[in-house]
UniProtKB/TrEMBL annotation:
Coiled coil: none annotated. The active site is at E156, E230. The keyword Nuclease does not apply. Residues 364-473 form the Beta-galactosidase 1-like first all-beta domain. Signal peptide: none annotated. Residues 9-320 form the Glycoside hydrolase 35 catalytic domain. The keyword Glycosyltransferase does not apply. Residues 490-549 form the Beta-galactosidase galactose-binding domain. This is Uncharacterized protein. GO terms for biological process: carbohydrate metabolic process. It comes from the Bacteria. It comes from Alkalihalobacillus trypoxylicola.
Length: 580
C-alpha cells in the first residue's frame, strides 16, 4: 500500500516516485485504451491518472451506465494488464472542462440543493451514487492485487468552498466501502488550505513556478511529499478563442526542475482525447466561454493519439533520471475518405414527435425541470397581439433561434452585448417559437448551478405569456423518416460512404455553420465553423465499419452545402471565415 513518510512516497516499503499521465477513459474510444496506455508506458511513466464523471455514470437519477466509453472496470483491467499503477479521482465534482464539472444536471431540478456542500439532500444523492460506484474499485486496490494506489477525495475544493464537513463526509464514504487506500486532495497553491484535510495528504496543481508552489506547501503542511497532481503542460480551448500551445522545450524545462527535486508528477494531460456528444463544459467569468469538442490540450499525445514533439522532449529529460523503455510503434492510421454527398434532409420541425419528448406547462420550464440533460429545447406559445413587442434575452441559456409564424427572425446568444430584442408580430394571433441550445454547463467557479433552456418566463411587450408547449431534444435517437414539408433550419442532412480499410478520419465542416455530426449513430460532437479554432471533428476508426457507413449532420444555422469531406489531418487553428 502507498504511504508517505519523510517527505517521500513508499510502496511495498520502498521509495516510490509517482510518474503519471492523465488519460480520461470517457474521452477515448475503448478500442484505443491499450494503444494510449502503451505509449504512456513507453515514455517511462509508471502510473495512469483518471477522473470519474458522475454525470456519465448516472445520467438520469437512479439509471447507471458502465458500458462502452463508461466501462471504467475494463479500463482498470487494461491498466493492470500493462502493469501500470492507477490513480482514481472519483470526486462528485471533477472540473476537467467537462459538462457541469461531472455533476449530473438533474441535481439542478431542486434549486434548494446546495452543490459541493454538506447539505443533506446533496449528500444523499452522493451517497446513493457512491453505493453503486465505490464497491467497483475495491477488488482493484493495490493490496488486493489491483493497480489502484491512490484515490482523491474532492477536486480543487479550495477554489470553490470551505465546508470541511463535506470533505469529511466523502472521506467517510471511502471508509464505509472498505477502500483502505492512499487518499489525497489537490488544489492550486493559493487554495490548498480550504481544500485540504488535516490527516489527508495535500497535493498541488500548477504548470510552472515550482519553487514558489512547494514553498507554499511546506509553509502549510511541513514535511509533505512533493506531488504535482496536475502538471499543466498545455491548456484547453474555447469557441471563439485561439488554439493554446505550450513550447515543448519550456514544458520539459519545468519538468526537469521537478525531477531534480525527486517530485512525483502527473502530466495533465498525457492524452486529452475528445468531448464527444454534448459533454463539453464551459467557463463563465466576465462572459460565457464554452469549451470546444477537441480536448487535444496540446498534451503529449494529440487528440487522435499521435506522439508529439513535447512527448519526445519529455522523454529526453526522463531518460536522464531513469532507464526508459523503447518507443512503442503504433499500428493506428488515418485515412481521407473524400467527399460524401448529402442525399437526404429533413427539418427538425418535421420530426419533433419522433425525436423529442413533448410537455405542456403554464410557463416555460428549464431543461432541468423537463428532466433534460443536454441538447436542444423547442419552446412554443401563442401571442395574441399585433405589432412590435420587445423582451430581454436574460432568460435564454445559451443560444436561441427565434421564429414567428414559422419564419426565422434572428439568433440570440448569451454573450450578446445588446440584451434587448424587438419582434414584429404581423397578425392578431401569432405563433412564437424559441429553439434553444445548451452549449455546455459551467464546469468551474461561481456559476456551477448553470440551468439551461428558458430559465424563467419571458417578459414580452410588458407582459408574461402563458401556456407553453415544449419539446426536449437530446438526440439520443435520430430520425428514420426524412420526409417533410418544412424548409426551416435546423435540419438533419444525411449521406453515406463506403469504407474498405477502416481507419481514423476527420470531418471537415467548411461551408457548414454550427451543429453536431453523427457517424453510424455516434455523436462526434459540436462544430462552430465561424468561431473556431476547431474546424474539423475527429472520427475514430472504431466508430466506422467496413462497407456502408452513415453520416448525419445536424446543421442549426443553415447551409447551401450538399457534401462534406473526410480528410486525413485535423484543422485546429483560425481560418478565414466570411461574415454572414
Amino acid at each position: 500500500m502507498l504511504i508517505n513518510k519523510e517527505e517521500k512516497f513508499y510502496l511495498d516499503g520502498k521509495p516510490f516516485q509517482i510518474l503519471s499521465g492523465g488519460i480520461h477513459y470517457f474521452r477515448v474510444p475503448p478500442a484505443y485504451w491499450k494503444d494510449r496506455l502503451l505509449k504512456l508506458r513507453a515514455l517511462g511513466l509508471n502510473t495512469v491518472e483518471t477522473y470519474v464523471p458522475w454525470n456519465f455514470h448516472e445520467p438520469k437519477k437512479g439509471q447507471f451506465h458502465f458500458t462502452g466509453l463508461a466501462n471504467i472496470e475494463e479500463f482498470i483491467k487494461c491498466c493492470q494488464e500493462l502493469e501500470l499503477k492507477l490513480i482514481v479521482r472519483p470526486s462528485p465534482y471533477i472540473c476537467a472542462e467537462w459538462e457541469m464539472g461531472g455533476l449530473p444536471s438533474w441535481l439542478l431540478k431542486n434549486q434548494e440543493t446546495i452543490l459541493r456542500s454538506s447539505e443533506t439532500v446533496y449528500l444523499k444523492h452522493v451517497e446513493e451514487y457512491y453505493d453503486v460506484l465505490l464497491p467497483k474499485f475495491k477488488p482493484f486496490l493495490y493490496q488486493n492485487g489491483g493497480p489502484i494506489i491512490a484515490m482523491q477525495i474532492e477536486n480543487e475544493y479550495g477554489a470553490y468552498g470551505n465546508d470541511e464537513a463535506y470533505l469529511n463526509f466523502l472521506k467517510q464514504q471511502y471508509e464505509k466501502h472498505g477502500l483502505e487506500t492512499f487518499l489525497f486532495t489537490s488544489d492550486g497553491p493559493a487554495f490548498m488550505k480550504q481544500g485540504s484535510l488535516e490527516q489527508v495528504t495535500t497535493t498541488l496543481n500548477f504548470g510552472s513556478k515550482v519553487e514558489e508552489a512547494f514553498e507554499a506547501l511546506d509553509g502549510y503542511k511541513p514535511g509533505s511529499p512533493k506531488m504535482v497532481a496536475e502538471f499543466w503542460i498545455g491548456w484547453f480551448d474555447h469557441w471563439g478563442g485561439k488554439h493554446h500551445t505550450r513550447d515543448p522545450k519550456e514544458a520539459a524545462r519545468v519538468f526537469e526542475e521537478l525531477m531534480d527535486r525527486n517530485s512525483s508528477v502527473n502530466f495533465y494531460m498525457f492524452h486529452g482525447g475528445t468531448n464527444f456528444g454534448f459533454m463539453n463544459g464551459a467557463n463563465h467569468y466576465d462572459q460565457y466561454y464554452p469549451t470546444i469538442t477537441s480536448y487535444d490540450y496540446d498534451s503529449l499525445l494529440t487528440e487522435n493519439g499521435e506522439i508529439t514533439e513535447k512527448y519526445k522532449e519529455i522523454k529526453k529529460i526522463l531518460s536522464q533520471y531513469i532507464e526508459t523503455p523503447e518507443n512503442y510503434v503504433s499500428k493506428l492510421k488515418t485515412n481521407a475518405y473524400g467527399d460524401i454527398t448529402l442525399t437526404e434532409s429533413v427539418s427538425i420541425f418535421d420530426v419533433l414527435s419522433e425525436i423529442g419528448v413533448k410537455k405542456q406547462h403554464l410557463t416555460p420550464l428549464s431543461m432541468e425541470s423537463l428532466d433534460q440533460s443536454f441538447g436542444y429545447t423547442l419552446y412554443r406559445t401563442d401571442i395574441n397581439r399585433k405589432g412590435t413587442l420587445t423582451f430581454r434575452t436574460d432568460s435564454i441559456r445559451d443560444r436561441c433561434h427565434i421564429y414567428i409564424n414559422g419564419r426565422f427572425e434572428k439568433t440570440v446568444y448569451i454573450n450578446d452585448l445588446d440584451k434587448e430584442v424587438s419582434l414584429n408580430f404581423p397578425n392578431e394571433n401569432n405563433v412564437l417559437e424559441l429553439f434553444v441550445e445548451n452549449m455546455g454547463r459551467a464546469n468551474y467557479g461561481e456559476h456551477l448551478t448553470d440551468q439551461k433552456g428558458l430559465v424563467h418566463n419571458i417578459w414580452l411587450g410588458e407582459q408574461y405569456w402563458f401556456n407553453w408547449e415544449m419539446y426536449s431534444i437530446e438526440l439520443q435517437h435520430l430520425p428514420k423518416n426524412y420526409i417533410g414539408e418544412d424548409q426551416r433550419f435546423p435540419k438533419f442532412l444525411k449521406g453515406s460512404f463506403h469504407v474498405d480499410d477502416v481507419a481514423d478520419t476527420f470531418v471537415d465542416l467548411k461551408g457548414f455553420k454550427k451543429g453536431n455530426v453523427f457517424i453510424n449513430g455516434f455523436n462526434l460532437g459540436r462544430y462552430w465553423e465561424k468561431k473556431g479554432p476547431q474546424h474539423t471533428l475527429y472520427a475514430p476508426g472504431p466508430y466506422l465499419k467496413e462497407g456502408k457507413n452513415e453520416l448525419i449532420i445536424v446543421e442549426l444555422d443553415g447551409t447551401q452545402q450538399t457534401s462534406v469531406s473526410l480528410i486525413e489531418k485535423p484543422i485546429l487553428h483560425p481560418r478565414e471565415i466570411k461574415s454572414d
